[in-house]
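Sample intake sheet
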Amino acid sequence: MPVKRSERGGNASSDASDPPVPDAAPILSTTRSGLVRQGPVATTTQGIAAEGDNEVGSLPGTTKGPAQQILHYLKPVLRANTELRVANAELAEECKRMSEAYKNVEAIAAEAALYRKELDESRKEVHELYKEVANLKELIQSVSMGPPTTAKLAPPWAQVQLRASALRWVWANTKQHRKNHFQLWTTGQFTRQLDSALPGPHTKILYDSLDREKAAILAQLRTGHARLNGYLHRIGKADSDLCECGIERETVPHFLLRCTRWNEQRRALIEATGPSFGNLSQMLGGKPEIGGDSCVANGRAWKPDIKIVRAAIAFAVETRRLAPEG
């Protein structure tokens, strides 16, 4: 029986041709890139999540199948993930601000640590002082300057005068003992050379008159534990202790008085300090060594010049050399 040939050259049965294959129904599938496909339409999971509260089935060219339902339930998760990233960024910024605050507190505590041990010793000395005063009172009452009846016949004011003299002697010797003990410490050499009045109450006057930022800068300048290459190299935070000007080590005296990088900012400091410029002790609120011309002014007791100290701090602030890293 003759075989009929199809138009494309293939073989076909002479009785009947094969029935036509119907077009495949649109199949919804997801790809590795997150595309949802149905026929010619393709959308991304991010695009679906960005549609807000719209139903996935309402998108053009899509039907609400299992994949769309899964993506529909993923919308809140995607939105929560975005909010979580924003919250993490805000938390990191807050941690950064707290870290800078702790740096300032540590700079102020550097100088306070120099006197902590001395305060503990002072408490013990006060207790010993009370004991000595009690013993002196008993001794004074038993002392007689003449016949045995003289002490009993002495007027009350004479007895008070003797006790007051003894107390003054004990107090003066105790202060000198504390000062000698403080000078024997091996720590804080730079601060002790800068301020011969230590230990003393003038440091509280200095820091109480400043805000936190300026107090932190003054603590760096008075202790030498500053963000300068001389100190940073000593603690392993800088490759060299040389100043960027290339002249010498970057120390507090070099930074305040000699560094050529800050000549423009130093003009205001020179004008504010006047003849005191170059006297590092006075510029940083310390008392020069005994015997200097500036230890006593017009016969009055010494006290730090807050105006000069503020000028030195303003110079450091303007250079931003001691500002915390951030």
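Comment: The two ends are 95 Å apart (CA to CA). Residues 188-326 form one domain.
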